[in-house]
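Customer escalation, tier 2.

The customer says the design service returned an amino acid string that "doesn't look like it belongs to this structure." They asked us to rerun it and document both sides in this ticket. The original C-alpha cells are below, unchanged.
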C-alpha cells in the first residue's frame, strides 16, 4: 500500500493542485489517496474565521467533497489540533506520506514546521507544494537581496515572470465506494459539516450571501470565464463605478483556493495584453500583500511603520456609538453607509468604497485601523490574513507602500465623482432624503485638520 494523506487548507479545489496531483500520480488503487480538512481553532496565533468566511467555507467544503468523490477520493473532516490529528490519523490509515500546500503566515508556518519535523520520526514522509501564489516570497528579492517594500518595483519584476503552467484535474482513481471500503474503521470517526455549525441559524443572516455568490470551484471558473469574456476590456474605467460593479469578484475564490492565481494568470494571458494589464496588476497587489505577510508576520496586528505607534487612535470601546454607526451604515455619509450596508448584506464591498470607508473610520473618526480590520475580517467573504490587514495599513499610512499619510478620502467628493446619479447609494439607502436617515456624525473638515495635525507630529519619528 502507498497511501497518501492530502491535507487541504486554503486550497479547496481539484484542478491545478500540486499536492493532490502528485498524490494521485503515485496512487495504484482506490484508497491510496485520502483527503483531509482540519478546522483549526486551537493553534496559537492562527485566526479563527469570521462569520461570512465560515459561511463560504461550509459550501466550499461541500463542493470539494463532491468533486473529490468524483475522483474516488474520500474527504475526512476533523477539528482540533492539526499535529495531533495528523499523527493519529496517519497511523490509523496506514499513510506513508502527507502532502499539503504551503502557507505563509507566521503562526501557520510554525504549525506546519512542527508537524513537518515530527511526522518523519514516525516514518511518514512530508511534502509541501505551492498552491496560493504565482511566486513564493523567497523567490522574489530586490537587487540587494531583501524583500520589496514598495509595490511598483515588485510588480515590475513579477509581471514579466512566467509562473509556470497549470495542472489539470487528476483522473479518477476508481469509485468512492471502493476507496472507502479500503479504509480501516477509523473512517467512520469523521466529523460532518453540520456538526461544525458554520452556517448562521439564529438568526440566519446569510440570505444576501446566498443570492450573491456561488461558492464552489465550478462557480469560480464560471466567474473567471464570464469576467474575461465580457468585462475585462472595460476594466480600467468600469472598476471605479460601484453601481455597475464591473470588478472581477474573484477574490473569495482566490482566498479559499477554489481558483489558483496561476489559473487566473493563464486565462488572462489568452486575452489582449492591453485589456488585462490593469486587472493583472490587482492580482499582483494580492501577491505583494502575501509577500509582506511572509517577511513581516506581525502585519495583522502591528504598525509596519513604528512611528505610527504614537498616533492617538481610539479603540472601539472608547467610541462605541461612532463605531456602531460606521459598522451599520448610519454615519450620515451616504457613500460610506451604502458600502457598509452592501458589506453586511453580501459579504462584499466595492474596493473604491472600501478605501473611503476605511479612511472615514481611521482618519475622521480617529478609530484604530485594527478595529476596522477586525470588522472586515468578520463580515467579508474574501477576508484573508494578508490582504485585509495590508490594505487597512495602506489606508492608515502605517504600512509598507502606504498611501501618503496626508491622503484623506472625502466621501462626499467620492460620491460626486463615482456615483453622480446616485445609482449605487439609492440601491442601498432607500430612506435617503427622509427624516429616517441620520445627519453626519462628524464634521469632515474639522476632523481632517485634526488628523493631519496628528500625522504631522509623528511623520518625522521612527
Amino acid at each position: 500500500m502507498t497511501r497518501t494523506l492530502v491535507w487541504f487548507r486554503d486550497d479547496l479545489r481539484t484542478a491545478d493542485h500540486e499536492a493532490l496531483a502528485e498524490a494521485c500520480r503515485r496512487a495504484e488503487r482506490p484508497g491510496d489517496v485520502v483527503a483531509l480538512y482540519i478546522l483549526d481553532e486551537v493553534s496559537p496565533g492562527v485566526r479563527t474565521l469570521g462569520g461570512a468566511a465560515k459561511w463560504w467555507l461550509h459550501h466550499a467544503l461541500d463542493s470539494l467533497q463532491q468533486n473529490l468523490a468524483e475522483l474516488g477520493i474520500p474527504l475526512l473532516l476533523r477539528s482540533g489540533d492539526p499535529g495531533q490529528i495528523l499523527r493519529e490519523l496517519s497511523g490509523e490509515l496506514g499513510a506513508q506520506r502527507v502532502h499539503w500546500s504551503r502557507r505563509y503566515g507566521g503562526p501557520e508556518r510554525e504549525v506546519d514546521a512542527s508537524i513537518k519535523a515530527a511526522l518523519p520520526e514516525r516514518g511518514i514522509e512530508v511534502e509541501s507544494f505551492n498552491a496560493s501564489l504565482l511566486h513564493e516570497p523567497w523567490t522574489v528579492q530586490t537587487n540587494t537581496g531583501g524583500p520589496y517594500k514598495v509595490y511598483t518595483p515588485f510588480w515590475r519584476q513579477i509581471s514579466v515572470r512566467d509562473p509556470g503552467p497549470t495542472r489539470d484535474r487528476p483522473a479518477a482513481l476508481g469509485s468512492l465506494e471502493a476507496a472507502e471500503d479500503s479504509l480501516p474503521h477509523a473512517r467512520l470517526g469523521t466529523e460532518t459539516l453540520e456538526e461544525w455549525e458554520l452556517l448562521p441559524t439564529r438568526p440566519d443572516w446569510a440570505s444576501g450571501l446566498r443570492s450573491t455568490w456561488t461558492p464552489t470551484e465550478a462557480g469560480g471558473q464560471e466567474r473567471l470565464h464570464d469576467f474575461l469574456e465580457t468585462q475585462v476590456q472595460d476594466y480600467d474605467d468600469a472598476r471605479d463605478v460601484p453601481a455597475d460593479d464591473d470588478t472581477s469578484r474573484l477574490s473569495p475564490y482566490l482566498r479559499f483556493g477554489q481558483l489558483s492565481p496561476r489559473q487566473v494568470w493563464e486565462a488572462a494571458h489568452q486575452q489582449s495584453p492591453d485589456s488585462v494589464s490593469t486587472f493583472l496588476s490587482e492580482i499582483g497587489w494580492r501577491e505583494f500583500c502575501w509577500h509582506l505577510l511572509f517577511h513581516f508576520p506581525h502585519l495583522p496586528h502591528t504598525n509596519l511603520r513604528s512611528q505610527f505607534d504614537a498616533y492617538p487612535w481610539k479603540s472601539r470601546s472608547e467610541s462605541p456609538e461612532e463605531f456602531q454607526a460606521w459598522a451599520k451604515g448610519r454615519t450620515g455619509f451616504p457613500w460610506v453607509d451604502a458600502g457598509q450596508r452592501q458589506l453586511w448584506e453580501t459579504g462584499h464591498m466595492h474596493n473604491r468604497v472600501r478605501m473611503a470607508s476605511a479612511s472615514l473610520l481611521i482618519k475622521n473618526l480617529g478609530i484604530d485601523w485594527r478595529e476596522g480590520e477586525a470588522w472586515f475580517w468578520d463580515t467579508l467573504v474574501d477576508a484573508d490574513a494578508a490582504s485585509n490587514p495590508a490594505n487597512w495599513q495602506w489606508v492608515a499610512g502605517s504600512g509598507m507602500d502606504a498611501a501618503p499619510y496626508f491622503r484623506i478620502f472625502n466621501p462626499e467628493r467620492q460620491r460626486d465623482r463615482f456615483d453622480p446619479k446616485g445609482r449605487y447609494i439609492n440601491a442601498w439607502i432607500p430612506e435617503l432624503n427622509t427624516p429616517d436617515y441620520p445627519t453626519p456624525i462628524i464634521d469632515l473638515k474639522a476632523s481632517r485638520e485634526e488628523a493631519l495635525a496628528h500625522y504631522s507630529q509623528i511623520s518625522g519619528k521612527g
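Tier 2 assessment: The sequence is consistent with the input. The chain has a mean pLDDT of 95. The radius of gyration is 23 Å. Sent an explanation to the customer and offered a walkthrough call.
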